[in-house]
Amino acid sequence: MNLEKLRYFVDLVQTGSFTKAGKKNYVSQVSITQQIHFLEEHFECQLIDRTTIPVTPTEAGKILYQESLQLLQQYEQLNQRMIDFNEGQNRIRIEYTSIMDIQQLSQVVRKHDLKKANIVLDVEKVPLKGVAENLRNYRYDLAISFDSEFFEEENIQTIPLYYGDYRAVVGKDHAYFEKDSLTINELYSQPIVMLSPEMIGKSYYLMLENALKDGYTPNIAKVANDIETELFMIQNNDMIGFFPKDYPLVNNGVDVKLLPIKDSHHQFAIVLAYRKGENNPSIKHLLYLLRGQI
């Protein structure tokens, strides 16, 4: 079995259409159908539910989809590494989890001319949950994210880039919108919306621990699977959310407002993470440069 069949399968799942998957790969719908049949015969199970529109993967298909994504990504990385070797370039793959992460990295990287060291940076956004696992498993060379995700990771070390505190976020129709700050009691007397632990991993549980340190059990009325849903609940359902200080998407002061929380334990750090004992010369050189600027 070659990787092209897996690529067709991934494109079919993502487009939900045999026709669209064929157009994406410049082949006929019949070719996509034949390749999917081959995979189903090879794995001896049904991978696609053809009774739905758009078509959807079966439970077995979902497993194959996730594993195929990783395999195709690794293959692309392999090709890129061989190209870099032939061209004498040192490519470093960095995963990040939010707009704040990439902004902090950009600020420190701009202070150096990495071209002199033939260093090329590739960055890719990933879900917060799993960022440490990606680093452990060598899917990326470095990671930049909230420090909570690397808590108790014995084989990962970090360099702090930015410190701050979490702010309460309210919509313009909320009773607290005209306030300049909130007391802890005011905060925890309201229903709260948070991103789900499936999305933000350890950060979710750290927020709960910090609330207990404040002496309260938060009233979490809703968990959201993305920032857009969380903001919608804040704007339209009189709920309070948590966002880092200076978070760009909620710092406009129009539809929502960031409020400092007095005497709160809700704080964070954005860090650059790397594997302990890293021996790649290019990565070690980059870490040396960044430590000198932080």
Describe this structure in words.
- This protein has 294 residues and is of the alpha/beta class.
- The chain has three domains: 3-82, Orthogonal Bundle (Arc Repressor Mutant, subunit A), CATH 1.10.10.10; 87-161 and 270-291, Periplasmic binding protein-like II (D-Maltodextrin-Binding Protein, domain 2, 3-Layer(aba) Sandwich); 164-268, 3-Layer(aba) Sandwich (D-Maltodextrin-Binding Protein, domain 2), CATH 3.40.190.290.
- The chain has eleven helices and eleven strands.
- The strands form three sheets. Strands 3, 4, 5, 6, 9, 10 and 11 form a seven-stranded mixed β-sheet that branches. A two-stranded antiparallel ribbon has the order 1-2. It has a two-stranded parallel ribbon with strand order 7-8.
- Helix 1 (3-15) crosses helix 2 and helix 1 (3-15) packs across helix 4.
- The longest helix has 29 residues, at 59-87.
- The termini are far apart.
- 28% of the residues are buried.
